[in-house]
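Hey, quick one: can you model this chain's 3D structure?
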Amino acid sequence: MSTAVAPVKASRYTATVVAGCFAVLLAQVAYSLPGALNGTFQTEFSASGTDLTWISAAFAIPMVVFELTTGVIGDLFGRKRLLQVGALLTAAGGVVTYAAGSVEVLWAGQIVAGLGAAVLYPISLAMIAALAPSAEQRAKSIALWAGFLSIGAAIAPMLGGALASAGNWRAAYLIVVAAAAVSILVTFAATDSSAPEGRKLDIPGQVTLAVGLIALLFAATHGSEVGFGQPMIIGAAGLGVILLAAFVRIELHTEVPLVQLGLFSNRAYAVVAMATVIGMFAFLGICFSMSIWLGAIQHQEAVRIGILFLFIQGPAFVLVPVVSRLISNVSPRWVLSIGFASMAVAGIWCSTFDVNDMTWTRFIAPMLALGIGFAMTVGSITAVAINTVPLRLAGMASATTNLLRDLGFALGPVLVGAVATASANARLVADLEGVVGKLVGSGTLDETHADAAVGIGHGGGAMALNSMPVIPGGEPVPMPAEIANLAMESLGAAYNLAFLVCGVCAAVAAVLTLVGLVGAQAPAELDPAEVPATA
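Sure thing. Here's the predicted structure for all 535 residues.
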């Protein structure tokens, strides 16, 4: 088995780059498919707002939790075969999702595919970074890798939206299975690499990290449905904090840590790490909010959401040559700050929209700004991480970078969905009985259906009332416009707030990089020896 520093022929390196890029394309397609399908899932599975949040979270949580461990496994035993295992897991998740007859089975398919992505993201990047013949070539390859990530994020919602509009959204997951088979085949031509020196599995660290993150994300998501003051939610949040604190302590004292915390003593690395989590939270929070706004709230065609994702992700691929040159020659301070600022503009712009306006094309301009911001940041983030560590730590650095990026991605829909659901439901409940009382008083609604409407509002929340054309109970009656409007406006106000919060977070990330990276060198100039090898 070759080591991470073994020289390879140019043709073999090209084959490795191709395998890595196709693997991240596969992972991103699987991850991004639900983006255009939230409205479809709501209709088919009678999904609540929390259910929709869990569809994204079910993929993101295992992906985030196990990325570091798969990075270690790749360092120890080789990355090539592990990349093929990741493709197999992603295919298995696609099969389960294709056959899903309930939202719970859909979650299960997402979990399995998320485990596959936990392999594909860090291992594909580590293979490319470890075998690059020069810092310049590494920067170009990383930019290309980021471009293929964006292609996956662009074509998946378009594919899902088009098939959903044709009445066959499940076929999109068969395409995921076929893409996984192609990924396995092209990986055979790649060059294997590893970096076993000083690496071993950190079981205590993995357990505390995994359970801690799951507990916190569970508290954030489920709390919006049952209430954040419930003992179960408080207990889960407390457990998560304790376990993550234990994780840090373990990593500081173990001989071979899962995360080399000494990496964060490098100012550029630490600043970009914080900005990554905040900025990627803002990015995917805006994407998720747009999808919910058009799909689950306004019930617009899924293909329209897919088109908007083209405007989000298209720039990241089109700008590959530009971003590659910027990564190589310009300080990350300017590239990242401008990119995050562009995301901030997108979020704040969308926060001004009126939910009663069904003009979906007004999202094009802010989504384009969001896409340009993402194009400028995602590759730069990765380049800073890879180029500020010794080459023997490329696997750890890539896994850690993916963890931070994907933690931000996971927090986006989880926190945005939780806060928006709680806000919308609170507003609905505050006004629902008054609206229903007026309808009863005017004779528009009888007591039986009035009680049913109130019960649905309290039990299923604003999303449930917004999606129901009739009120059940004896002989169903059409949903009164007053109740439908209240539910829709409650959701609109909640997601206006979500867009604004995401925009402000992106602005914070921009300021953080602008101020925190003062004096930082361009990635290609950084001296790996400046980063401590141990904690």
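One thing worth noting: Residues 203-253 form one domain.
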